[in-house]
Design goal:
- With 96 residues, the protein is of the alpha+beta class.
- The chain contains four helices and two strands, in the order ββαααα.
- A hairpin with a 2-residue loop joins β1 and β2.
- α1 crosses α2.
- The longest helix has 20 residues.
Length: 96
């Protein structure tokens, strides 16, 4: 894990996985959610549907370095925690 890069390690299905909110992940999230810009992403994150959560989780996993991502079977609580940790790690990087 590279905290300076804004990476976090999360547990999904009992397995440690790396998540990171990269510029590419953010662009993928904007496209997947059909929004434009950080303000719209932030607003949408407050009311994510299950489909939206899958989009965001897959993007931050790819940002963490995973190439083949299948998030359909991930527990929703674990998914929400992983997304929150990815955004918190990115915020920590920006502030630190």
């Amino acid at each position: 894990m590279n905290a300076a890069r804004g990476e976090a390690v999360v547990t999904l299905g009992g397995e440690g996985r790396r998540v990171c909110l990269t510029l590419g992940a953010l662009a993928e999230i904007e496209t997947g959610l059909g929004v434009d810009g950080l303000e719209d992403v932030a607003a949408r994150m407050k009311t994510l549907s299950a489909r939206d959560l899958m989009v965001v989780l897959a993007a931050v996993l790819r940002g963490g370095g995973e190439a083949a991502v299948d998030v359909a079977g991930v527990d929703p609580r674990e998914a929400a925690e992983a997304v929150a940790r990815a955004f918190a790690a990115a915020a920590g990087r920006a502030g630190g």
